[in-house]
Design a protein that fits this description.
single chain, 673 residues, mainly beta, Immunoglobulin-like, 3 domains, 6-stranded mixed β-sheet, elongated
């Protein structure tokens, strides 16, 4: 066992300049190519950092930073070098030649040992079973600290080399090869100067050229190959966004790509006050994205009119929660009549542009939670057929009072893409007389008088409404008609969106922690997504003091959102259980004289795919708030904040597994989202 010194000289690390044309044609924007410098600068940091500055002559000088590290492998027989970390020596910090020391390295006892060198060191980098091939990953989601600061580039880059060390030597010299491309975005705007630049993406939507993901570098042939899980885009986000009042520079690492004559999107996302987000996809004709080069894209005077997709809405006022949506609300609240009541709604996409596509068709997927055989919900005049979406990207939802049918209820419609079968998004059709609004004591909360999905507040089971798994925008009917379930496979949000009529249960599924959303599927607290309904909990108690903001996944109609924990706390504090003729309710006196009624509607248990609990009308009151039960760092309680009142023993529980489907009550959204 010995220490090996890997000496990197100035000439060996210098990368010759690469002159190239603009990566994108101008098409009205002044997108320029700049001659730039690729530099490792000396920062005190445990992570590799790369900075891009001005080019000096035809050379890109390299300066090493404190904490820099190389990774080492060897296939030489008799050697034991399997992803060993080689750390930069103190005297090399800030220099353009470096000495790296690797401890615990066992070269072959005789002859030369061939060493594969890569940069930066990562424990996840793998050597293939055969050949000199290294498998690593390029992050799709990258983060820059602030505009103009490119120190993050080294974290996402990749370079490699081969060298040899003899059994009698402790040093080796080599030259690194940089196979990745580096993109510098220069963004400015007059129209949107009061917004902060949040992120920029490069996206080949049509031909899906790989730009990030897992790759294999062949050190013998200098070839990169990409796996099936690669993404046709890469995004860089700013941790500390700044106003777009001046030109801002952000840096992105991508695969080298031949984008010549392809239509490629530059997707710019801005954030404003009060959770407003502006995302503008700009379609441009691409050119070569070259390795070992700085590829500059300049967008001067960014405007809303730069949006290249008529089916995409750039401005979203609800909390995006890192996702995407279609339309401005997930719930259409409407009355009904024998001749039908029409509501025309926009179905334009919004939010994460890389996750959406053009909506083409729409149709009814659920007619009425009380009796799905009653054809109470239609789209564009039909209660059964799929029909094209209008050229304005809107649909007309029809709600009918059928013969011998109910006076209301809850249905659902969906939109589809070109394949006419994969659900892109779905909308609740809540058929009800306009709910009354109750001001809850001196709390300031204004709450609807009925559960989401019901049409009556009378003393009968029809007051129960529909159920929701915590965080999902899609409902499940109180009755058994039209009820479906399946074991959850929701490692991402898309799975739940594409199965809007399925309760995603946890029985037979490992590592769920009673959550339908699996995330990385480890069962850890880090798998949870706490902002689905817009109110992530920063406190250590279920009674989150924040009311949050309306999110794109919130199921309530426009102008309302799921109640905050403060509403549930008020109902528990001042409410009383009352057994009526047909049902039990929590009765709450909201103004000193009049009462609001919270029915005992029971639940559908997420751990069990069977039908809802029996005796729902008298057994338990189960209601979600818009908040998790505790903060993200608490691994003990990963549930949602709720009230669960059991009439048999008069007990209150304040947290429940997020896979359970409970009732929802909506409160007035003071921000009118």
């Amino acid at each position: 066992m010995k220490n090996i010194l890997l000496t990197v000289c100035v000439a060996a690390l210098a990368m010759t300049g690469c002159t190239q044309e603009d990566i994108f044609s101008s098409d009205g924007n002044k997108e320029l190519l700049e001659k730039s410098q690729f530099t490792l600068i000396g920062l005190t940091s445990a992570r590799t950092r790369t900075s891009i500055g001005d080019k000096t002559g035809d050379i890109y000088p390299v300066l090493w930073s404190d904490g820099d590290a190389l990774g080492l492998f060897s296939r030489t027989e008799g050697a034991d070098i399997d992803n060993v970390e080689a750390l930069l020596s103190d005297e090399s910090v800030g220099q353009n030649s470096g000495v790296f020391t690797a401890e615990g390295v066992n070269p072959a006892k005789e002859g030369e040992t061939k060493i594969l060198v890569y940069y930066p060191y990562k424990a996840s980098t793998k050597l293939a079973d055969e050949g000199n091939k290294l498998t690593a990953s390029l992050a799709t989601e990258q983060e820059q600290i602030k505009p103009g600061d490119s120190h993050h580039i080294g974290k996402y880059g990749f370079a490699y080399a081969t060298t040899t060390v003899s059994s009698t030597s402790k040093s080796a010299q080599f030259s690194l090869r940089h196979p990745m491309a580096y993109v510098k975005f220069c963004i400015s705007s007059q129209e949107l100067s009061t917004y902060k630049l949040k992120s920029v993406s490069l996206y080949d939507k049509d031909t899906r050229t790989p730009l990030s993901g897992t790759f294999t570098a062949n050190l013998d042939t200098d070839e990169l190959t990409f796996g099936s899980e690669n993404k046709p885009y890469a995004t860089v986000s700013l941790a500390v966004p700044e106003l777009l009042a001046t030109t801002q520079e952000v840096y992105l690492t991508t695969y080298p790509a031949e984008l010549k004559d392809k239509q490629v999107y530059i997707v710019v996302t801005l954030e404003g006050d009060n959770q407003t987000t502006v995302t503008i996809p700009i379609l441009k004709k691409g050119k070569s994205l070259q390795a070992n080069a700085v590829n500059v894209i300049a967008i001067h005077d960014l405007k809303l009119s730069d949006n290249s997709c008529e089916w995409y809405e750039p401005v979203e006022t609800r909390l995006l929660a890192g996702g995407w949506a279609y339309g401005e609300s997930n719930c259409i609240m409407t009355t009904i009549s024998p001749s039908g009541v029409n509501n025309t709604i926009s179905v334009k996409a919004r939010g994460n542009f890389m996750e959406v596509e053009e909506p083409k068709y729409a149709g009814t997927i659920f007619n009425c939670d009380l009796n799905n055989g009653h054809k109470m919900v239609g789209v564009n005049g039909s209660t059964t057929d799929i029909s094209p979406i209008s050229s304005e990207y809107s649909i007309t939802v029809n709600s009918y009072k059928v013969s011998n049918g109910y006076n209301g209820g809850c249905g659902q419609v969906a939109i589809y893409g070109e394949d006419r079968s994969t659900v892109l998004w779905s909308f609740i059709v809540w058929m009800t007389p306009v709910p009354a609004e109750h001001v809850y004591g001196n709390t300031g909360y204004i709450v609807q008088d009925r559960n989401l999905g019901t049409y009556t507040i009378e003393d009968n089971w029809k007051t129960n409404g529909v159920y929701f798994q915590w965080g999902r925008p899609t409902p499940f009917g109180w009755g058994a008609n039209g009820y479906y379930s399946m074991p959850t496979e929701a490692t991402d949000v898309r799975f739940s969106i594409e199965h809007p009529r399925k309760l995603l249960y946890t029985a037979t599924v490992d590592n769920t922690k009673s959550d339908w959303y699996l995330g990385a599927w480890t069962g850890a607290r880090t798998d949870r997504k706490d902002d689905f309904w817009g109110n992530p909990n920063e406190s250590n108690t279920f009674n989150n003091p924040s009311d949050g903001h309306k999110s794109i996944y919130d199921p309530c109609p426009k102008g309302y959102r799921v109640v905050s924990p403060g509403v549930l706390a008020e109902v528990e504090k001042s409410g009383e259980y009352v057994k009526q003729a047909s049902i039990g309710v929590i009765r709450y006196c909201y103004d000193g004289t009049n009462y609001a009624y919270w029915p005992l509607a029971g639940a559908r248990w997420g751990a069990n795919p069977s039908d809802r609990t029996t005796n729902n009308s008298t057994t338990a009151a189960c209601y979600w708030s818009n908040s998790p039960a505790t903060n993200y760092g608490n691994d003990k309680d990963q549930g949602g904040s709720a009230i669960y009142y059991k009439s048999a023993d008069k007990t209150w529980t304040h947290s429940a597994g997020r896979s359970h489907a409970f009732s929802v009550r909506c409160m007035k959204d003071t921000e009118n989202r």
